[in-house]
Amino acid sequence: MKYTHTQALLLLSSCFCATSLASIISDARYVFAFSCSSSYTTEGWTGIGNPLIPYNKTCSTAGPNWIQQLVGIAGNSELIDLAVNGATADQDIVFTAPPDFRNQTAAFLSWIAPPPDQVPWTGDNSLFLVTFGTNDIVRSFFNSTGNGTDLHVKIFESYFNTVDKLYLAGARRFVFNNVIPFDRAGRGIDQGPVLQEKMKFNILDINFRLSVKANAYCASKKDIICTVFDAHSLFTHMMDNFKTLGFMSPDAFCNDYAEVHSCEAPGVAPACLGPISSYIWKNGLHPSWAADTLWAKALYGQLSGIQSS
Ligand SMILES: *[C@@H]1O[C@H](CO)[C@@H](O)[C@H](O)[C@H]1NC(C)=O
Ligand SMILES: *[C@@H]1O[C@H](CO)[C@@H](O)[C@H](O)[C@H]1NC(C)=O
Ligand SMILES: *[C@@H]1O[C@H](CO)[C@@H](O)[C@H](O)[C@H]1NC(C)=O
Ligand SMILES: *[C@@H]1O[C@H](CO)[C@@H](O)[C@H](O)[C@H]1NC(C)=O
Questions:
Q1: 255 CB-near residues (< 8 Å, 6+ apart)
Q2: Which of the ends of the chain has fewer CB neighbours closer than 10 A, N or C?
Q3: Which UniProt keywords apply (predicted)?
Q4: How far is the CA of 199 from the centre of ligand 4 (A)?
């Protein structure tokens, strides 16, 4: 068991720490993504049927999302993206209609485990990226008690039961992204100060529970490597230092880009402050591809530092 939880902030400066040692990213021939903050990750699979059948890709980032960019930087991995827009970890706990983490995992178990000929993955040549929590909070914080703790405990019980199904199928290398501070983006600001504060504490609570559960789960297995990526700190850093990082605003978005779902960046809209890449946020909830570039680079840096043997 190896467990690391490095501050994303440190990695911004030490990114691309090139190393000749094998790392969990240099070893990764396959990158499997499961997501519920899933519109952050999804490429447009509906969650129904065989995820290996080609489908038209969409990106909520108006340009390539962090996971496509991560795989692009890594350069030697195939991305198999089972994320579904709008999903939660468990729709029996926080309901949204799209297939949840359990369903995405069920599809993996139906179609990709045991490994089919066209995807000969093993525990050592694959990475499992899991990104849930955003929709869980968006759909529950309003009515949650206090910081949402009771609900979040249930969510992570289900979440790690699902992770365990992947483990039992042979998954051995896990990356868990925490939830970014969208309370400071349009979606949070629109709530007014009281609910914005509640949203903030719900996000902090869910991230705290994720780190505790991930630590406990990973410590319970001798043969796995896992890491939590602190996307929350990264986005906090980005919003606090938006100018230095080349963005025009910590929280603004432009209506002309807000509904773009292409994985290629749109042309510059004259009514906006600049191209989509000058915004951290594509809309009130979803980052732009340029913010996702920093996510991909920082995560790549973290994964490069985790030796695989
Ligand atoms: C994918 O997009 C192309 C071009 O827009 C379209 O012709 C095709 O029907 C789409 N395929 C699916 C599965 O939606
Ligand atoms: C998702 O999983 C739940 C629980 O296992 C199940 O009840 C539901 O039918 C599944 N939905 C889909 C679309 O597969
Ligand atoms: C909160 O609960 C009320 C009453 O049950 C319901 O009408 C409302 O839709 C809920 N709001 C959210 C955001 O879930
Ligand atoms: C929410 O979390 C904050 C910070 O940990 C804490 O001060 C506050 O008491 C919590 N509120 C509730 C209702 O649990």
A1: 271
A2: C
A3: Hydrolase, Signal
A4: 12
